[in-house]
Amino acid sequence: MSPEAVVRGAADGALEVIAVSDHDTTVGVPAPIGAATGTFVHVIPAVELSTSRKGRELHILAYFVDWGSHALRAHEAR
Q1: Buried (b) or exposed (e) across 31-47, using 16+ Cβ within 10 A?
Q2: Number of helices followed by number of strands (H, E) in the chain
Q3: Which of 1, 19, 50, 60 has the highest local Cβ count within 10 Å?
Q4: How many CB atoms lie within 10 A of CB 22?
Q5: Across-strand partners of 49?
């Protein structure tokens, strides 16, 4: 589903706030933020970070991220 379709669906459903995330990258964050311009939908930038601890894979959801952060870019490059 495209970012525009997600925002349109949120608006059609009368949602005022949505969070948009992807696995280990924030590269897709600007598109839904741009698509929400001119609507009442507020997009919260988020990311699902993959990591491991003691041999177990973990997925951590982070909200209100600084999607241009150097630390996130470094994580994405791994």
Answers
A1: bbbebbeeeebebebbb
A2: 3, 3
A3: 19
A4: 12
A5: 60
pLDDT in tens, 21-58: 888 888 888 999 999 999 999 999 999 988 888 999 99
Helix (H) or strand (E) run with residue 6 in it: helix 3-12
pTM, entire model: 0.82
Instruction: Copy the structure tokens of residue 49.
Output: 């970070």
Q: Which of 50, 23, 51, 18 is nearest to 33 (CA)?
A: 18
Dist CA 12 CA 46 (whole Å): 22
DSSP class per residue in 14-33: T--EEEE--BS--TTSHHHH
